[in-house]
Every structure is written in C-alpha cells, then in structure tokens.
Amino acid sequence: MAQPKHTQAHLSRSVPKHQSEFFKQRTRNSMEYYMGAKLLEVGVNPKNTIYRWSSQIKGDQEIITISAYWGESRQKLDSENS
User: Fold this and answer.
1) H helices of 1-82, where?
2) Residue 50 in contact with residue 68, Cβ under 8 Å?
3) pTM for the model
C-alpha cells in the first residue's frame, strides 16, 4: 500500500523569551533557509510553497515554528484565504 504524499512540513526552535528581536529574526532566517534546503532534498520547489509562522510562549522560552505548505495543503490554504 502506498503512503500518502506529504504536503506540509513544520520546524520549531526554542529561544529565550527575553532575547532581542535581532536574535529572534536571525533564528527565523536560518529556519527558513533550513526548511527550503530540506524541501529541495525531498523534491519540493520552495518557491511553490506557502510559509506560515507561529510563536508560543512556554515558561521562559518562546517556541518559534515555521510551517510550509505545498500541493493539496497549499490549495486548501489558498481557497480558505480567498
């Protein structure tokens, strides 16, 4: 039986909640670069991908998450936003 194709990916990193915005932005930039490289590895064009960011505070940490959507997941997001 064939496994369903993945059409989304998520990557999270923890940073100290009180860290400077410069450091947090640098973390987001490196996460986006890493996500793009991983997508290329599995044959997904990062330019055909929608990215969404989320942030959650847990204690003294901020959990930053990048989510990438392509294929069916991207189409679903596009239809929800139109």
Assistant:
1) 21-41, 71-81
2) yes
3) 0.86
Task: Give the distance between the most distant pair of CA atoms in the chain.
Answer: 49
The whole-number pLDDT of residue 5 equals 77
Look at residue 1 and tell me whether its pLDDT is greater than 80: no
Measured from the Cβ of residue 38, the count of other Cβ atoms closer than 10 Å reads 14
- On whether the CB atoms of residues 57 and 17 are closer than 8 A, the answer is yes
In the sheet with 8-16, reading across from the earlier edge strand, the strands are: 8-16, 61-69, 50-58
CB-based contact 15:44 (threshold 8 Å): no
pLDDT digits (tens, 9 = 90+) for 45-75: 999 999 999 999 999 999 999 999 999 999 9
Residue indicated by tokens 């990916």: 9
- 72's tokens: 């069916």
